[in-house]
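DM from R.C. (forwarded with permission)

"hey, sorry to bug you on a friday — could you get me a structure for this? deadline for the figure draft is monday and I only need the backbone to look sensible"
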Amino acid sequence: MLHASTKMLIDMRNVLFERVERLSISKISQRTAGDLMQRITADVGQVSNFLVDYFPSVLEQLTVFVVVGVFMLLYDPMLFLLVMAPTPIVVLSFRFFWKSMRKLFHK
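My reply, with the result:
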């Protein structure tokens, strides 16, 4: 995963550099060179953090969720329905919570 993410980051940096090269002088002169470089480095760093730190965990948790759900459905469908019934409520609660947290963060 680390090798794949490193290769992807190199490709992203190359694509970003090519895009910056194609910008007009008036567009580039609106920002300083340091600002452009910092923006590219920070954005690519954010993607790198996601790919290396979070994506494998999300993939693992999603796989466990699906496999356990399938086994539970095969073993006892009523238990599956009982466990999965509150899922929409939990999802909506988290969505509301993070939406309110985002507003507080921006303030």
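R.C.: lifesaver. The mean pLDDT is 85.
me: no worries. The radius of gyration is 22 Å.
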